[in-house]
């Protein structure tokens, strides 16, 4: 079966970009040094336009090609097609044969791979700058607008049965990281490590406290907590830790610490709305009632 056709279109200037879309292997040629850059794409026309755009802005990912372009200018470069490919599975195979023969500018000598390539700090800075701020295509776009854009893109889109089958096969047996004890252990360990030695500022503590004030736990939630805790038995290790943390002489707060806490509490309370204050009083009364019932 023939999966490609050798074309070797004569070199065209970058001003000649016919709107003819096809899949294949293309080249960019320096007419002065006769050196070539080889690439492949499912849409050669769009890819060549992308190369030209990056070269003109000085941010091409291939530093050798960019420097050569800067030195000789656009008029000394041309592009062409090595081979038109009809089977996408063979695209990289065909590209590799051309890279091996004439890929002078190619940093990555393996088709479809970035192995061996390491961007310079200068290139990274340029790529970052060209996508930052107003240059970013999503600049100024609000989240609702983004959602609307994606909604329109997918509205009416129907997946083929073959695509659905492949998605189903790929997801079979995959219940996410929480179904794997090893993954769960890693997640917990990472969470602990991120909080180890971390201390919240007084401002953060005040905000957390204010956010929780006036919050009333529903009867349904209380019942769930009660059911979950009923019959729960602490391990000997947990008991020992609890005993050790509570043993000894209780801490006695200094007068300064008491005063600081009073001021902080008063400051937080003053920021509460009337509804929050009323809810807080209701919560205190409910707590007292529950304690009285438990004693009886």
The arrangement of helices and strands along the chain is EEEEHHEHHHHHHHHHH
Per CATH, what is the topology of the domain at 4-118?
A: GIY-YIG endonuclease
The outline comes out as: elongated
CATH superfamily of the domain at 4-118: GIY-YIG endonuclease
C-alpha termini separation: 89 Å
In total, the number of strands is 5
Q: What structural class do the secondary elements suggest?
A: alpha+beta
| Main sheet summary | 5 strands, antiparallel
Classify the beta-strand content into a percent band: 5-15%
Topology:
Layout: E1 4-6, E2 12-13, E3 24-30, E4 35-41, H1 44-57, H2 63-72, E5 77-85, H3 91-102, H4 121-130, H5 143-154, H6 161-171, H7 181-195, H8 202-212, H9 219-229, H10 236-246, H11 255-270, H12 274-295
Antiparallel strand pairs: 1-5, 2-5, 3-4, 3-5
Keywords: Endonuclease, Hydrolase, Nuclease
Pfam family, one: NUMOD3
Domain GIY-YIG: 21-108
Identify the notable features of this structure and list them briefly.
296 residues; GIY-YIG endonuclease; alpha+beta; five-stranded antiparallel beta sheet; disordered N terminus; 52% helix
Describe the structure in your own words.
This protein is an alpha+beta fold. 52% of the residues lie in helices and 9% in strands. Among the domains are: 4-118, GIY-YIG endonuclease (3-Layer(aba) Sandwich), CATH 3.40.1440.10; 202-224 and 256-296, no CATH class. Strands 1, 2, 3, 4 and 5 form a five-stranded antiparallel β-sheet that branches. Strand 3 and strand 4 (35-41) form a beta hairpin. The longest helix has 22 residues, at 274-295.
């Amino acid at each position: 079966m023939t999966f490609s056709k050798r074309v070797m279109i004569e070199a065209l200037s970058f001003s000649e970009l016919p709107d003819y879309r096809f899949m294949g292997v293309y080249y960019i040629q320096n007419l002065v040094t006769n050196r070539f850059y080889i690439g492949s794409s499912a849409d050669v026309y769009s890819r060549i336009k992308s190369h030209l755009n990056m070269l003109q802005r000085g941010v091409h990912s291939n530093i050798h090609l960019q420097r050569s372009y800067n030195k000789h200018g656009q008029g000394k470069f041309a592009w062409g097609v090595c081979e038109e490919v009809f089977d996408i599975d063979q695209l990289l195979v065909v590209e590799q044969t051309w890279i091996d023969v004439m890929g002078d500018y190619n940093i990555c000598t393996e088709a479809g791979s970035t192995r061996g390539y390491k961007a310079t700090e200068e290139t990274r800075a340029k790529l970052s700058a060209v996508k930052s701020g107003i240059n970013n295509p999503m600049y100024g776009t609000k989240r609702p607008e983004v959602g609307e854009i994606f909604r329109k893109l997918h509205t009416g889109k129907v997946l083929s049965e073959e695509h659905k089958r492949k998605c189903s096969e790929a997801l079979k047996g995959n219940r996410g990281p929480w179904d794997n004890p090893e993954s769960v252990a890693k997640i917990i360990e990472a969470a602990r490590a991120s909080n180890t030695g971390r201390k919240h500022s007084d401002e953060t503590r005040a905000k957390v406290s204010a956010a929780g004030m006036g919050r009333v736990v529903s009867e349904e939630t209380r019942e769930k907590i009660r059911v979950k805790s009923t019959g729960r038995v602490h391990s000997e290790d947990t008991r020992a830790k609890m005993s050790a943390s509570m043993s000894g002489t209780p801490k006695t707060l200094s007068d300064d610490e008491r005063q600081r806490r009073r001021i902080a509490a008063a400051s937080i309370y003053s920021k509460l709305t009337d509804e929050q204050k009323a809810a807080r009083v209701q919560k205190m009364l409910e707590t007292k009632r529950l304690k009285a019932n438990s004693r009886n």
